[in-house]
Description:
Layout (H helix, E strand, L loop, with lengths): L7 E4 L9 H10 L5 E6 L11 H7 L7 E6 L7 H7 L3 E5 L6 H10 L3 E6 L17 E5 L14 H11 L5 E5 L7 H7 L3 E4 L1 H4 L8 H19 L1
Parallel strand pairs: 1-8, 2-3, 3-4, 4-5, 5-6, 6-7, 7-8
Helix pairs in contact: 2-3, 6-8
The structure holds D-xylitol-5-phosphate (DX5) and zinc ion (ZN).
Amino acid sequence: MTLDPSIKIAPSILSADFANFGAEIRAIEAQGADWVHVDVMDGHFVPNLTFGPPAVKAFRPHVKTVMDVHLMIAPVDPYIDAYAEAGADILTAHLEAGPHIHRTLQAIRAAGMKAGVALNPGTPAEAVAQLLDLADLVCVMTVNPGFGGQKFIDMSEKVRALRRMIGDRPVHIEIDGGVDPSTAPRLAEAGADVLVAGSAVFRGGSVDNPAPYGENIRAIRAAARGALAA
Length: 230
Ligand code: DX5
Ligand code: ZN
């Protein structure tokens, strides 16, 4: 398997209109989103609640690209089959969510999905050293998870260390939190290829006025590509 090294922009629907997810997903894809990032929060692992498997299943028919499901829940394992059934393409669990992340990643792949492991800002790159053959994606959190619109925490050095550790394995590095055209370049330059963005994509637009979504997506992509070309 080879990895697509191009920059992918993954809008987080945490910043969408919660009464209108289907139309919001269709709008961001029409405006150039590469993946759709779906933030699942349980009010326990993180201090906020969003939605669970039935909602994610309802999103599925609207997603024509890649449904990238980020679980901010603990425990994870009892819900893996439900997210497979809901149609997740990638299922990402937090390393900090329990003592058995190795088992969790195996179980996600066994359920037919790509497996991601997410790292809170306080968790070092080295924590995934034994997991890189079990993971398709490492998500580097650049905020403490739980809310959109938080201040960016620079994790460029962690990204650089991870890209070095990953070597030629086909593993994506995804960045989540505070990504915008000003923070994207240093992350792309350090080796990230998937940029999640909530507020920086949805700001200024709506399903009735989706053009700003496209402008925002293109601005982030151009900033990231600019750093690679430099
Ligand atoms: C935070 C979520 C993020 C969030 C990013 O816990 O995992 O996906 O939506 O939002 P912004 O881009 O606004 O920081
Ligand atoms: Zn997320």
